[in-house]
Specification:
Helix content is 28%, strand content 22%. The protein is of the alpha/beta class. It is elongated. The structure holds NADP nicotinamide-adenine-dinucleotide phosphate.
């Protein structure tokens, strides 16, 4: 997925200031690796959505920047030399902002984006373009459904009368827009054994997931396959990767971009 680079790879220097847009395991791992090195300062940026986020080594800042212009201002004010967008594949707005801000501030940008999951021949996936389409499919199927989407995506499921939802979230929500649901709080990674047990215990007949990719939450997909359950797989939003800046799929490759 590497695109043509507009900027040459970073040279080793003693005054690198790297801003990592985070909220993912990859962002955390990259910050932890880079923080050990001399001559490089790391600032991890978190949106501030989870109550007790894992705090990586190095500096951490929390909360939005105020759109692309705010992020560009931050890049200039903080003398950021390299920007790494390691946000989640579904974090479309901050990714678009990162491209615009890097362009306007003249800061080299790297997209660290984990590959999407690909269906195997023994998977039973139903493709949905977004949460609204996933909800339509749920309305059609009904029954006991394990819903593994973010709280911001649940509104689309509010009018469904013929389903019981099991919802898993990192933090307990204030309230959910679902008619019949049970909420459990847990933070990944999840093991196959635990996912098999959860699906059996709650007599789940259908799983709704988004195509996050990565290992941390893949066990539920494997568990559904083993149990022969259908999975409504929501596709990633179409955030264009800037063709002028590079993209990598692993923490190791992101590290090499910064320290060739
Ligand atoms: P989003 O829709 O793309 O972003 C919405 C706004 O939140 C952005 O415009 C930005 O505000 C702020 N923001 C997002 N990520 C930020 C970051 N790393 N640092 C500072 N501000 C940030 O993002 P989202 O889907 O709500 O995701 C929010 C965070 O949760 C991201 O960091 C992402 O990596 C993480 N996450 C998301 C998902 C998911 O499924 N979406 C799953 C796991 C983790 P301003 O415009 O004011 O700068």
């Amino acid at each position: 997925m590497t695109a043509t680079a507009r900027w040459s790879p970073a040279r080793v220097s003693t005054d690198m200031r790297v801003l990592i847009l985070g909220g993912t395991q990859e962002a955390f791992q990259l910050a932890e690796r880079l923080a050990e090195l001399a001559g490089i300062e790391i600032i991890s940026s978190l949106a501030g959505r989870t109550r007790a986020p894992r705090m990586p080594k190095g500096q951490v800042r929390m909360g939005g920047f105020g759109g692309a212009e705010g992020l560009a201002r931050y890049l200039r004010a903080e003398h950021i030399t390299h920007l790494v967008n390691a946000t989640h594949p579904f974090a479309a707005r901050i990714s678009a902002n990162a491209m615009a801000a890097a362009d306007s501030a003249g800061v080299p940008l790297l997209r660290l984006l984990r590959p999407a999951w690909i269906a195997r021949s023994d998977d039973r996936w139903l493709a949905a373009q977004d949460a609204a389409e996933a909800a339509d499919l749920c309305r059609h199927e009904g029954g006991r459904i394990f819903l593994t989407l973010g709280s911001g995506e649940l509104e689309a499921f509010s009018g469904i009368h013929n389903a019981h939802f099991l919802v898993r979230m990192v933090d307990a929500p204030e309230g959910l827009p679902l008619r019949d649901c049970r909420v459990i709080t847990a933070r990944g990674p999840f093991s196959l054994q635990d996912e098999l047990q959860l699906l059996a215990e709650h007599r789940i007949g259908l799983l709704v997931a988004k195509n996050s990719g990565g290992d941390a939450t893949y066990a539920k997909i494997e568990a559904a396959r083993r149990m022969g359950l259908p999975v409504i797989m929501t596709a990633r939003p179409a955030v264009a990767v800037d063709p002028r800046s590079p993209a990598v799929a692993s923490v190791a490759d992101a590290f090499r971009w910064l320290r060739p």
